[in-house]
Each structure stands twice: as structure tokens, then as C-alpha cells.
Write a structure and sequence with these properties.
- The chain is α+β, with helices and mostly antiparallel strands.
- Helix content is about 30%, strand content about 30%.
- The chain has a four-stranded antiparallel beta sheet.
- About 15% of the residues are buried.
């Protein structure tokens, strides 16, 4: 909780075709959009963004829907900060810490 608000994580998973030049261009545009909207790469084709509230998470989900590429599959998952904290991350057999909440929230 942050100031009485439940913080959320928006996770975007996508599998986009890259068979030809135009499909690769669509892939690149979608990926660049995610980065410009504040998402960070969690792993290949999985991006995440911290949101200050459920309402803010919905705003980013709507933005993603407006920028969907014409082909491929995109999934949007919204989870609470507490749920995110339960993710177990491994690199090989070694456990790694999960990503941390950004140090400062931005208000626009």
C-alpha cells in the first residue's frame, strides 16, 4: 500500500510474428511503445510497469489496447504489489531477487 492506495504491476506478454519486413516493423513499434509508456523488459517478450493504483493500471492497459499490432498475441496481466512480491526468479538453479518498486512515483 502506498498512501492508502494499492499499487499494481501491469505485465504484458506478447508473441508477435516477424516473418516479413512489415511484421518486424509492427513488432518494433509495439515494443517501442511499451518502452515509451514506462514499461521495462522483464524477459524476452515480457514487459512490466509499476502503477500507483488499479485505476492507473487500467489507463496503461487501455493504451496497450490502442497500440495492438494487427497480428500476434498480446496478454495483459494486472497484479498487486504483494502478488508481484511472491514471484520466484531463478537464473539457472540460483535464485535471484525480483525487481523492486521504483523509488519514486511520478504524478502527471
Amino acid at each position: 500500500m502506498f498512501g492508502g492506495l494499492q499499487t499494481m504491476w501491469v505485465i504484458v506478454l506478447f508473441d508477435l510474428p516477424t516473418d516479413d519486413k512489415w511484421m518486424r516493423k509492427d513488432y518494433t513499434h509495439f515494443r517501442k511503445f511499451l518502452l515509451e509508456d514506462g514499461f521495462r523488459m522483464m524477459q524476452y517478450s515480457v514487459y512490466m510497469r509499476h502503477s500507483s493504483s488499479e485505476e492507473n493500471a487500467q489507463v496503461h492497459a487501455r493504451r496497450i489496447k490502442l497500440h495492438l499490432p494487427p497480428d500476434g498475441e498480446v496478454r495483459i496481466i494486472k497484479i498487486t504489489d504483494k502478488q508481484f512480491g511472491r514471484i520466484e526468479v531463478f537464473y539457472g538453479k540460483k535464485r535471484r531477487p525480483i525487481e523492486t518498486v521504483p523509488a519514486q512515483l511520478s504524478f502527471f
